[in-house]
Amino acid sequence: MSAQISWHERALKLRPRAQAFIDGRYIDAASGATFDCVSPIDGRLLTKVASADAVDVDAAVASARAAFNKGSWSKMTPAQRKRVLLKFSELIRQHTEELALLETLDMGKPIADSTRIDIPAAARCVAWFAEAIDKVYDEVAPTGPDALALVTREAVGVVGAIVPWNFPLPMASWKLGPALATGNSVVLKPSEKSPLTAIRVAELALEAGLPEGVLNVVPGFGQTAGKALALHMDVDCIAFTGSTVTGRLMLQYSGQSNMKRVWLECGGKSPNIIMADCADLDRAARASAFAIFFNQGEMCSAGSRLIVQESVRDQVLEKIAVVARELVPGDPLDPKTSLGAIVDETQLKTVMRYIDAGKSEGARVALGGRRVREETGGFYVEPTIFDNVKPQMKIAREEIFGPVLSTLTFRTLDEALEIANNVIYGLAGAIWTRDINTAHRVARALRAGTVYVNCYDADDITVPFGGFKQSGNGRDKSLHALDKYVELKTTWIDLS
Q: Is 300 an annotated catalytic residue?
């Protein structure tokens, strides 16, 4: 990222795409309705976005189904699809600065994160699945000499992808990469809180050579566009990332419609366990701070529960506080800013209610706890650390989705594991220890989809991501993600 870029000047000149993208073209919502897209940086109106409803979803699904049945994408060879998706990935890279600016203006994350992390990650994801798809083999079953049994993978059909607002383009790419690579058509419903990059990349996909109708984007609200997509009788699969509350609704909508498969990546309340024998408490503390404060704490896998052994609690808390004091909320369009704005006023109020709940239930505010930069018109909360937190408190059990750390203590490892697993979530967890036996024991005992050992939030597209319990089902990333978007077909040939 060039240090010479004036992001504020670029923001003033930006004219974001704001319509739905259906059947290869931008169109207004059939009703003409729009909703305000407001920047959390300063409360300014960025644009008015088309507010899709059931009529628009019907049109998008019909377009996706027609494209799928026509076979212009679904019947392409994997090598042909790979070439198109690699070009799509390259176009995302070429438009990094534009897409990063949209991402930052839309949901408030620092521009340095948007340019260096989010947009490159989205491009890598699409490219990785593009490269993978012509290297995945089908199977011949070991049936014996009198039969030939083939097990083949076929695209499921029309995929409804409903994605969240905290990592708008990376989360979309986690769905688009494998769903498109396997030959499906997709109707993408971005969050109404951050729809702009999804709307823009639809045009880039078309430019890359994706046939019309294969990718449609319907911006709108969850209770209208999202619900209509999940209830649609001609959608074969829903791939959802968002809250556990909404995830439950997705399952209900499947049962009320055509029993479409539903893949869920939902909430988290991840435990971050630090043992007294941790070899490097400074490193553990710094990683623990970023585990909860990165992206303003708006991460489903955030290490929001610090579970620290009693004998080192004071040392660890002070070390985390040193890091947290450096993370001053600032202007997200300043490349030096490391902590940006909360996505909107609704989420800001939610975070502040949880901070008030922590205080009222008897937890001690060790750091932060206030709204800041209110004079900007934006939505900012300083890094907040609670001490003396008990497992039954709301801040220890419920997902806050903000820069709020709850600290709990333990004496024995069994006690730590009991605290760690005693929530409805199971997305991620971590253990810091120099004892390899302890590391393995905790890794096996934690009911979570990802366990970090002496690190936090380590990441690569080659490993699966998803949760246990009410954190969801299925996996994003890695070759395992392909399984969500294909049907297995057995073809039995009698050779007798």
A: yes
